[in-house]
Amino acid sequence: TAVIVENAGRKKVHRHTPNLSMAPGSTEKLVQTTLEAARDELVRGLGGLLDRAVPVKTDPGDKPSDGAVIVGTRDSSRIVRQHISADDLTSVGDDGYLIRSFFRGTQGFTVIAGNTEVGALYGTFAFLRRLQTHKSITRLDISESPRVRHRHLNNWETVRLYAGNNASGTGGLNGENGTIFNFTGTGESAGRNLPVILDRYIVAARAMASVGMNGITINLVNADNVYLTPEYIAQEAALADALRPYGIKLALSINYTAPTDPRFAPDTLTNEQLDPHGEEFRGWWNRRARLLQASIPDFTGFTVKANSEGQPGPQDFGDDHGDGANAIAAAVAPLGMKIYWRTFVYNADVDEDRLKRAYLEFGYINDERQPDGTRGRFLDNVFLQTKNGPLDFQAREPIHPMFGRMEHTNQALELQITQEYTGQDEMLCYLGPMWEEALKTDTYARDERGRLLDKRLMGHIVDGTAQGHSDTAIVGVANLGNADNLTGHHFSQANLFAFGRQSWDWTLDSADIAADWVRMTWSNRKNVVGTIVKMMMGSWEALVSYQTPFGMAHQFRSSDHYGPNPAERLARDDWSPVYYNKADSIGLGYDRSSTGSDFTAQYFPTLAARYGDIDTVPENLLMWFHHVRWDRRMRSGRIFWDELVYRYQMGVQYVTWMRLTWDSLQPSIDARRFSEVKTKLTIHEADAGDWRDTCVNYWKEFSGRDNPADNGPLS
Ligand code: GCW
Fold it and tell me: Are 355 and 599 in contact (CB under 8 A)?
């Protein structure tokens, strides 16, 4: 075996931070070109997997040696030019790759080729993944390209960490797994702040590239303007330089009223000058964007949370989301940048039902007829970024009704990888099946003449094939932190991995993804793979069962979004668990059918009818759409109350089973990670029990019923 990479360092990527350097004592290496990164991955990966040193050749001579692996583009590599036609390569697009086996007599070699160097890097990782997961690497004829163009992380990171506070930063969401990028370098990390590059930035970049992610918005959506100051831009440029070889481009979250921040003096605007149609506002954003582009030439644009949860926005000045988004988009369009405008809005004046508000604030802008006869007011370089469900990353939600309804607008899907509402870094919860369920949900979308679309799963809407969009995006709220394993809980890595794979190809099976991950992370032994995959595949449904069964939503205590507090009443109705559970002596759940808020009418007719009728709504979404009588007969034959209690108990029992099952794996798992996961599972089991007991005891006050007889003792 040899690794052959011709001209790996030929096209030096221009660095904008002349003294870019790794922190002292680093084990990672800074590479300058993507082909250097691919070469290093092969050397490291093959060397480790085959347990022997693998030589690198830059000039293969006439014939590649037996077992050689050649990586490149037609431009960089003579062997690629000789073996892969331009047409074949063109068919996989910018980010795709081909992996092909070639034979000469008894000798063979493998060519990994991309149209671009990044494509070749993705192919390299895919090849290593095959090897690592014990799939065949002979007779390969693989052709792959992503279904979605922009596969980004949103890194909810604050300048300061709000330890333990869920609402403001990643501190609470990731538990002890604190902030990944180090801008301020105080205390222990003094001298280790950007522009110094820490190992973990490169590790994260490699992890992201290994599953095809190609962008990251580095700061929290409740944006601090400091990220737009020259001091920070210099640091961001260093980060961009370090991540660039891995195909990862930077973006920033911004605050709509940043132009009025005195920190930018003398370049500041007054409130009156924030008019989105005026030159001042657009000029300001254009100047900031140019400043960014001067240091980060491939800077991709801005993520905006506006008029949401106290963030300022165009509505504060009598303008709407279309005016605001288009103003900033127009300002940055000449620079090739995009705006990811979030639709996570829920202004209480819009409607009594929080779930209806986003569509009411955005839908009409999509429908609006334009002077040139076309429809949809949002500019082409605007993405509306929408969470998978209509509420807020609950463990099970119906799909957001805006998917399919925004046909004249570019839409980005936002998923939450960090487990804010799914156990944070304490609970083992594999989210692949949740995303698969959402992406493969039939929207029953129709065209303007009322005909059902052929391709109409949520994934088809997102990948553009349903309604003919060429610019497409999936964004994941990241769970990266400063823990050695990047994610805190070892099993949270699986969610980062799955996000990458599913944003590349949403049609993948989440169980297959889990199996790959287990093989790459824990072991290739059949019984270990089978056992861990089984644990993972049921873990999300178990969490749904002990937290929010049958479509119960948002019963989290407000202090940390981790534990339960179904009785909580907060200043805002729509933050209060009681608003969602609507517990009374009759039953439980929120009537959103035509007899209630009529939220169901926002779905296309087939889904609206299905969800709106208590007899046809899937039971796992029951309480999202209906107030369910305690004595309602469920499909199992049990009454709702009994089934509900049973479901809570089942969820907890699954966690007990996971804990015992993990114990049985001790001989096959290294001691450190075994005990770290074991500790987490013990906490997980206790906290799942707390969810069951707190919720069931509270519901009892309304149902007046006791534990069902066949349910065994609840503690
Ligand atoms: O899930 C909620 C979180 C907030 C977050 C908000 C959002 C950063 O509790 O912390 O704000 O969603 O998506 O904007």
Answer: yes
